[in-house]
Amino acid sequence: MTSNLLKIGFIGGGKMAQAMAKGFISAGLAKGETMISSCHPSDLASAKAFKELGAESLFENVPVVKKSDVIIVSVKPSVVPIALGDIKKAPDVKADKLFLSIAMGVTIKQLEQFLPSESRVVRVMPNTPALVRSGTSVFVTGSKATEKDAEITKKLLKSVGTCEQVTENLLDAITALSGSGPAYIYVLIEALADGGVKMGLPRDLAYRLASQTVLGAAQMVRDTNTHPGVLKDDVTSPAGSTAAGLHFLEQKGFRAAVIGAIEAATQRCREVAQSDPTK
Hints:
Layout: E1 8-11, H1 15-26, E2 35-38, H2 44-52, E3 56-58, H3 62-66, E4 70-73, H4 80-89, E5 98-101, H5 108-114, E6 120-125, E7 135-141, H6 147-158, E8 161-165, H7 171-179, H8 181-198, H9 203-224, H10 228-235, H11 241-251, H12 254-274
Helix pairs in contact: 7-12, 8-9
């Protein structure tokens, strides 16, 4: 049974790696025993999390590459040159593997320079809802990646949500929108619930209502393919409560603040991309 499953390795075992691993298991693409991860010796929490999935968890990067068909690079951007340097320097590593990098701002060109020349690279931007198989992911293929590599990437990412292939010049804005986006939505849900509590709702009920409202509204936009402005108008009756609430949001600069958040996050991604990750 397990022989037909992908052998997936994670270089870096943080929250995003854990979310993807759990999503792959949930989708039936992998089992704990077909996965392996490496993390910093001080990151005992991540090591424990992967062991609880039934995966092997190490404090070295080279064995992860040796034992895997697909390697997901999920360390901080500043750590990428060090982690991949271990692989490039290792004399006994056959690195003609598929590497998927989720490191923010580290370009395809940089990744290919850090790895052995035979490595095939795909740059990926997922988000944490992959944990509940509702992730939003995009990917860009490197110069040596094949059509089969693209298909494997799609299969993995679609198993934990949606997936689209894009060009690399769009990745900074995508990172700011869908990569960071869940954090903005969590703040919105928290604020909606706080408003409900202020007006007398029990806290647990307010969170349930707020989260389901966001989920339902998002599904309406996605599934009906109707412009969100039209859907907003459908909810807004003349002189009604929704109109009053929307007027207050506009007065407080809600729309401008969200647009500004995307712009600020994009600029930060560009700063990381333009910096030297070897320093």
